[in-house]
Amino acid sequence: MTTAHDLLVAVIDTRSGTSVEQGDLSLALAGAELIDLIDAGAADLDGDRVVPGAERTEGAAAESVVDDPLLRKAASSLVRQEPHEPVEDWLWRRGRDLGAAYLAELETTGSAAARWRARKPTLSIDPAALADSPARRHANDRWAAHEPVLTALAAAAGVDARYDGDPGDGDPGDGSEGRDDLTELGDDRVVTVLAAVNEAVVELAGVRQRRAVETAAFDNIWRAV
To answer: Which chain positions lie within coiled-coil regions (predicted)?
Structure first.
């Protein structure tokens, strides 16, 4: 299973809230994909820009580096010509409707026991919709261990690591664990990706706030007419 799949399971299984913003989730999923591509050698960072990894530059297809369909699609979409795109541009481009794509795959592969329910702009899924599987248990184990990359991505998507044990057990903790200093990850590239995800989520929140203000102002104008 990929980090993106584990992230989706953690978001669904966690009882910290009934919904997340689809845009936030999509950006976090795009960040998870990029981190896995870097780990697989299919991508790399040159400063803050996404570049093809060693396997690609040596002539091997990026698809041969990963065995997940959505991750292969992400690898094949890498910009190979200079100037390569910044990490944040990758997140916005790759993240477009990515949450819906992962949810659709979850249903198609039979990992979901019931149809997922989504409504824009928020996403609400009953954890009971997930079928018990080794993949789900793997994601739960990463979450229970407060794996720093997974918890950081989940936090960006709007889910705090506030649980001990399986995310579906419903027992909140104090959140003191799992907030590892990301600078201790030992890979500046991962830190760069996580920072870009957080910045993109903040930017998206600003866009939503401006739209809400504009909508409210428009409604007030019509009330006054």
So the answer is: none
Query: What are the residue boundaries of the structural domains of the chain, listed by start?
Result: 3-211
Q: Is 124 left (phi over 0), alpha (psi -120 to 50) or beta?
A: beta
Tokens coding 170 = 């419903």
Nearest Cα residue to 42 out of 83, 4, 70, 72? 72
Tokens matching residue 199? 């910045």
How far is residue 112 from each of residues 72, 106, 181, measured CA to CA in Å?
A: 22, 6, 34
Binned at pLDDT 50, 70 and 90, residue 133 comes out as confident
Q: Is 51 left (phi over 0), alpha (psi -120 to 50) or beta?
A: beta
Question: What pLDDT digit, counting tens, does each position of 52-74 carry?
Answer: 987 544 444 444 456 889 999 99
Q: How far apart are CA 204 and CA 214, in angstroms?
A: 15
User: Which tens digits make up the pLDDT trace of 86-104?
Assistant: 999 999 999 999 988 988 8
